[in-house]
Amino acid sequence: MIKERIDIENIDGQLFEIKVVEPESSKPASFTHYLHNHKNGVSQFYKKDALAFVKERLVKKYPNEQITNKVAEEALQYLIFDLKKSVPFPAPEKPKFKFIDLFAGIGGFRIALQNLNGKCVFTSEWDKYSKQTYKANFGEIPFGDITKPKTKSYIPDNFDVLCAGFPCQAFSIAGRRGGFEDTRGTLFFDVAEIIKEKQPKAIFLENVKGLRNHDKGKTLATILNVLRQDLNYYVPEPQIINAKEFGVPQNRERIFIVGFRKDLGITDFKYPEPKDKTAVLDDILEEQEVSVKYYLSTTYVQTLRNHRARHESKGNGFGYEIIPNDGIANAVVCGGMGRERNLVLDDRLTNFIPVTNISGEVNREGIRKMTPREWARLQGFPDNFKIIVSDAQAYKQFGNSIAVPAIQATAEKIIEKLNCK
């Protein structure tokens, strides 16, 4: 390795530790994307900003030295060798296909498709805490707001699959055809725009079950019309997939939309059949005693009981729920009653001294919330998935995420179709 005045091999690795901050620059994202894609031809989309990022850091570290582009490039190449040492989920060594991860959250799609030997070549996510979790687990910072043209400009060409768990928004289509232009102002429009520009071989979209009936079915009809007619993709009827049928004890129904570019000649597609319905709550519970902070106070337990009694007196089914160990959890969600509808009984607590401010005492019935790790398991995330954020953010992130096994089973069917052509 050629050295100038900077000893490349002794560069302090901490110099390139990146914190996810807002407002963001695209340079840190480009830097990490370049490190991940230096071998596959995608690096050209990220190299300019990656070099600029490295040069800025070196200038700051060595203000009295002349930092040339050559020095910056050597430093960049050196850093590639150190990439996989601390990343729990590195990309496969010999990937079979490439995909992009839009509205990436904490990387559920990425884990699923990497398990199938896929290589992620671009990712975007706007939430800064989700970005922190994503970086900790994949060694890569997602680009930001996908609605911005600058963010879209970093998306490479010639990837195989576009993945997007896009948020559902209402379309105003009254009296109109419900085509591509009618989706402007919605996040689906940005997905459609990328599909139109990049022409991936396949698309894999995920959304809440309610999308099927949203706005009396008009929203889904518009989406399918855009994909089939405007963008010219073969799109079979979307299907509701339940996570509990794919190895996790969670009753979580989501709508999956799959499509293939018509020139590939793919004219049929079957969603995966249920693989494993045997998982129960006991399979994902913590093996050791958990912190007292997850146990409800006596005051809160009584509040929940009173709340449910009021609703039951009105004929409503709303209220907290304690899931038996041989049962199936309700869908985890990021807000509202998400945690209270998935309480568990755990009598192993030995220290009842509160570690947080609570009203009343810690209940002696063993009623507690699930831990973030248990929520991660309900979504099919491996135990080596790093949880580096607060509990509040972790619940939000896993509640917003996807069930990895259901995504992987469907993605496997997609890849099978692509490989047979």
TrEMBL record:
InterPro entries found in the cross-reference section: C5-MTase (IPR050750), C5_DNA_meth_AS (IPR018117), C5_MeTfrase (IPR001525), SAM-dependent_MTases_sf (IPR029063)
Record's keyword annotation contains S-adenosyl-L-methionine: yes
Tree of life domain: Bacteria
Molecular function GO terms recorded: methyltransferase activity
SUPFAM superfamilies (alphabetical): S-adenosyl-L-methionine-dependent methyltransferases
The protein's enzyme class: transferase
Keyword line: Methyltransferase, Restriction system, S-adenosyl-L-methionine, Transferase
Catalytic activity: a 2'-deoxycytidine in DNA + S-adenosyl-L-methionine = a 5-methyl-2'-deoxycytidine in DNA + S-adenosyl-L-homocysteine + H(+)
Documented EC number(s): 2.1.1.37
Pfam families: DNA_methylase
Active site per database record: 168
GO biological process: methylation
The family this protein is said to belong to: Belongs to the class I-like SAM-binding methyltransferase superfamily. C5-methyltransferase family.
Identification of the protein by name: Cytosine-specific methyltransferase
